[in-house]
Amino acid sequence: MSYLNLPPLDFASQRLKDKVIFVTGASSGIGAAAVRLFAREGAQVVAAARRRQKLEALSRELEQQGFSVACVECDVRGEASVSEAIDFTVARYGRLDGAFNNAGVHAPRLPIHEARVEDLDAVLTTNLRGVFLCLKHETAAMLKSGGGAIVNTSSIAGLIGAPGNSMYAASKWGLSALTRCVALDYARSGIRVNAIAPGPTRSEMFDDWQTTEDDRARLADKFPMNYIAHPDDMARAALFLLSDEARWTTGITLPCEGGRSVA
Ligand SMILES: NC(=O)c1ccc[n+]([C@@H]2O[C@H](COP(=O)([O-])OP(=O)(O)OC[C@H]3O[C@@H](n4cnc5c(N)ncnc54)[C@H](O)[C@@H]3O)[C@@H](O)[C@H]2O)c1
Q1: Which residues line ligand 1 (CB under 6 A)?
Q2: Least crowded by CB within 10 Å, which of 15, 26, 60, 108?
Q3: pLDDT over 90 at 89, yes or no
Q4: Whole-model pTM above 0.90?
């Protein structure tokens, strides 16, 4: 059986009813799918990204469906930008209940002797330092409002090794360490911190990397379930970890990769 091109699931149950949820990298891919899903699940969503026009288009789309989504420009590489985006969220809704730290970039796939230090710095600055900054300001806001839940986006590359992927993988393995340690920092303060680890998922990043349908089918075949995920699949994993259904779960990185890391 091939799972290629399955349509997204469609069910709703208001699992984030009235929760204020901040989402980074919200202008495309997994982040945009999360904004759509979290709004349908009853959240007050603050969609944060660098590309204002894309954010506004997403907000208009959801408004037409009867949902209101607030947009804020945020570049996770800058501490001022992150802290202003969290301040915007708290000023608008009075508190912060949840965050999906999802913004990320990939790095050139090269053996390390051919790798450029600038590319390492770039991927660590966004994928690791960016999430560090988000966690720092989100936990500060959540401590004031009595707790919350945070989900970071790691990767299959943060669960298993792969040739040529040292720079991106280092950022995502680091993210799992950050997730574990910060989860323990706040385990007694009502703040849960987890991560999801997507396998290949159709998005702008994925399209840059796997450009033809033949390449995509070949890649899918390397995964036990022979599937390239829909961004909504990842949003649903984040939804579970953000919701009260996961109230006893903290510090984990949840594999969402069709069985690849257990094969
Ligand atoms: N698509 C995949 O196959 C895959 C697999 C594993 C993990 N991931 C991870 O999923 C996350 C989302 O990626 P995606 O697949 O939806 O791709 P995407 O390229 O569609 O989304 C990434 C988003 O992050 C944003 N972003 C990048 N740098 C930023 C910055 N400095 N500040 C704010 N926003 C920034 C981009 O503009 C984009 O909207 C990333 O962390 C990525 O590493 C993706």
Answers
A1: 24-25, 27-31, 49-50, 74-77, 102-105, 126, 130, 153, 155-156, 198, 200-201, 203-206, 231
A2: 60
A3: yes
A4: yes
